[in-house]
Amino acid sequence: MYSPLFFSPSPSSGELSEAEAYHIARALRGRPGMELFVTDGKGNCIKALLTGVTPKKATFEPLETLSVYKRPYRVRIAVAPTRKPERNEWMLEKLVELGVDEISFIKTTHTHLESFSRVVNRDRMEKIAVSAMKQSGQFALPEIKIGTNISELIALPGKGDLFIAYVPEQNTAPVLHQAATESTDALVLIGPEGDFTPEEVTAATSAGFQPVSLGPTRLRTETAAIAACLAIHLAR
């Protein structure tokens, strides 16, 4: 029998959030004695027994801590958000389902700044990430960063492979899944509608970012981010 997965930042409390309680009471018609899994969103999971449930409160008794597979590498996607919230939200949902460890919505020269005041809402993004994590049967929530300037990100890129999705005019950039190194962390920069400026590309490559292609066709921003995440996993 299928046992549903729930999220609790502190599983040791033995209590689910009101939103999770409502879901288990109304949608799943849960009853005391029901078996469930609870993750803290940090890669850990416990098997538990539901001990009490109402639409506002659900409690559980932890039974055992489960051994969970953890990837030996991290996938980081830095992307300039689009001007339509539904496209950013769809992108985030799919990135979480594929397995992304960090997503940064970055400011670039061609990024519309209204995207950060009107389009990218942290609370809603976090709810979408939790839902996608549970739906895809994962136990780790990605770190979501909003409003980082591309120059700041380039200055402190972190360890591992560094890529910028950008194909020079001479069309010499290798395909991402062939350029990625096995079992190494990866950070991929995805440009906005209008792409990166030549100055941004120069700054990135000077900092060690390698230009890569995501395929022979021109992709929308959100599609490019998803393709990059998948390419890294395929390379591993």
CATH class of the largest domain: Alpha Beta
CATH fold category name of the largest domain: Alpha/beta knot
- Count of extended strands: 11
Strand order of the largest sheet: 8-7-6-10-9-11
Number of distinct helices: 8
What's the mean pLDDT score?
92
* Main β-sheet description: 6 strands, parallel
What is the CATH superfamily label of the largest domain?
A: SPOUT methyltransferase, trefoil knot domain
Shape, per Cα inertia axes: elongated
How many separate domains? 2
Gross CATH architecture of the largest domain: 3-Layer(aba) Sandwich
Order of helices and strands: EEHEEEEHEHHEHEHEHEH
Query: What would you report as the Rg, rounded to the nearest angstrom?
Result: 20 Å
Structural class call reads alpha/beta
Give a summary of the structure in a few sentences.
The chain has 236 residues and is α/β, with parallel strands linked by helices.
Structure in words:
By secondary structure, the chain is α/β, with parallel strands linked by helices. The chain has two domains: 5-65, Hypothetical PUA domain-like, domain 1 (Ribosomal Protein L25, Chain P); 75-235, 3-Layer(aba) Sandwich (Alpha/beta knot). It has eight helices and eleven strands. The protein has helices at 18-27, 85-98, 114-119, 122-135, 150-155, 176-179, 198-206, 221-235; strands spanning 5-7, 15-16, 35-39, 45-53, 58-65, 75-79, 102-107, 143-149, 161-165, 186-190, 210-212. The strands form two sheets. Strands 8-7-6-10-9-11 form a six-stranded parallel sheet, with helices on both faces. Strands 1-3-4-5-2 form a five-stranded mixed sheet. β3 and β4 form a beta hairpin. α2 runs parallel beside α4 (122-135) and α2 packs parallel to α8 (221-235). It is elongated. It starts with a strand and ends with a helix. The mean pLDDT is 92.
